[in-house]
Amino acid sequence: MPNKRTSASLNIRVATPQDVQAIHELSIRVYGEGNSCTAGMIRGQIAAFPEGQFVVEYDDDVVGYAASFRIDEKTAMGDHTWMEITGGGYASRHDPAGDWLYGMEVLVDPTRRRLRIGQRLYDARQGLAEAKELKGIVFGGRMPGWQRRKKTYPTPQEYLNAVVNRKTSDQVISFQLRQGFEPIGVLKDYLASDKASGGYASHMIWRNPYAKEMPGETELPHGQKEDVRVATVQFSARMVGSFDEFMANVEYFVDVTADYRSDFVVFPELFTLQLLALEQKKLSPAESIEQLTRYTPRFIEKMREMAIGYNINIIGGSHPTRTDDGEIQNVAYVFLRDGSVHAQEKIHPTPNERYWWNIQGGDEIGVIQTDCGPIGVLICYDSEFPELARRLADEGARILFIPFCTDTRQSYLRVRYCAQARAIENQCYVVMSGNVGNMPNVENMDIQYAQSCILTPCDYPFARDGIAAETSENVETVAVADLDFTDITWARAQGTVRNLRDRRFDLYSIDWKKGV
Predict the structure, then answer these.
(1) What is the annotated signal peptide range for this record (predicted)?
(2) Sequence-ordered alpha helix ranges (H) in 165-295
């Protein structure tokens, strides 16, 4: 019987959020730890333009990746840097009506060089440009041979001309020329980390022979509605006789909002402080928080069961938790209806939290992937720091959930005004959920003030006052609203203002520490 021989399988497909970690590890293999794309950048690329991101799999390993987005001709053909045109690496400058495809990244596993992975990725991009009837593809390409030949070719333009005229060769430029690309010039200061190219890049284009002329700016249609129903619970503090009684109160609202077919329900910050009513003696603030952390495993398991049982995604307010390193942090747990549990630490504890409860700030912020797309969570005070919301929007979040706990109207309005600002500047929806009622025997839960709400950007497709729904002040109740993601897509591309796209990346950027 002859020996059976099975070839290794190689597959190219559109990238998904499940590929983020594998792509990040590929980036490290290609560029090293210091210059690799962060996982957040890759999440943002996939969220901004899912059709434009491709991976190559070989024996189920990700060995290639290409990232791209649509852009208008004026921007694509003008002088730019990589940071400017890619929105800091997140593809946040993606324009759904753009008539050119911009290639922002190609990664090929250095141990798989003979599989023509780069060519396959270039072919996939060209196929996408043809299918979308775009004018073509444009990008800034590396010139890794220039520094070695700088004595012969003093300027990058002279070097580029020499490669085009076949007087010398360059591994990258020569490959791109074979793929049908042509240089239209040199981009200065394109990517400072590319030392071999002296920071320069060849400005490359490929013209789509099947392109249709698009006179002027193409109007982006609203298209089919993409609705998500969200509910915010304005939860009242009350004396409870047992852990099960507290969870029964929570389950009531999960049941009600699930009956309204909500996709998400959000509870307030630190709403589990009601469990301190079970203590037989008055505890100091530090003792109170320590006691609450002991409920963490039971709280997580009950909330997870509810998310599955009621088929709803639950943003479980926040709960004091002792972390693996021994610190106590204020953590928002997100319970998805598929049974998965995610955690978002509060990055900025308030002065009171630090002083009375010794709560420490977290050190990671990122989107959470759900069946309705990526979401972000900012716990109360975190909403007053715009850098965090911008990071989440860049990673693809179209809804930000803000569980909060405020005692006075002044405190509440700080969070409310900042939440509205986050909705406007990031062109996203923001959902706030706060506590009401009083618990005289529980430290720092003496009085509460809240008016929970669901906020929108301020533009024509949205609610007139930027408020999709809001509760009455200081009563226990629920607010529900349907949010249309196609309105967000339209506003970011063609709204009256376009805050995400109009950022001046040539003047400023936020530099996050690697790994954060």
Answers:
(1) none
(2) 171-178, 243-259, 285-293
